[in-house]
Amino acid sequence: MEETQKVAIRLNLVGKTFVGAVCRGSYLELSLDSSTLTIGSAWRLTCSGELVLGSDSAEEVIDSLPKFVLNKVIVRSEVNSKFNDLTVDLGGELMLETFANSECYESWTLSCESGEMLISGPGRLWSHFPQIE
Prior knowledge:
Blueprint: H1 3-13, E1 18-24, E2 27-32, E3 35-39, E4 42-47, E5 50-54, H2 59-62, H3 65-69, E6 76-80, E7 85-89, E8 94-99, E9 108-112, E10 117-120, E11 126-129
Antiparallel strand pairs: 1-2, 2-3, 3-9, 4-5, 4-8, 6-7, 7-8, 9-10, 10-11
């Protein structure tokens, strides 16, 4: 992913507040105040470096995700590795991380109210559809 897209991701994530979190089968849908982050790859939530829950956790554990992320403000985001894994820092040592794990499906998608969309995957691929003015 190029720096232009990484900047667009930061602009659409950092400073935004989580207002909803729903697991939809194998997809995790996280609603922010002005965008939606949909995760289709493996993911984990850590606190102070310890694993709190992840995509392979039991359903009842995943159902506890909202209590960790709702009303949290993203303080930093970073796209890592050649597979565009995403790290979202929620402050207070709370981190949400994605891990590309499919050569066939998207890892994550950021859909913004402005119409802008950023897609990671499959594999090393990515797409960016800027805001239409």
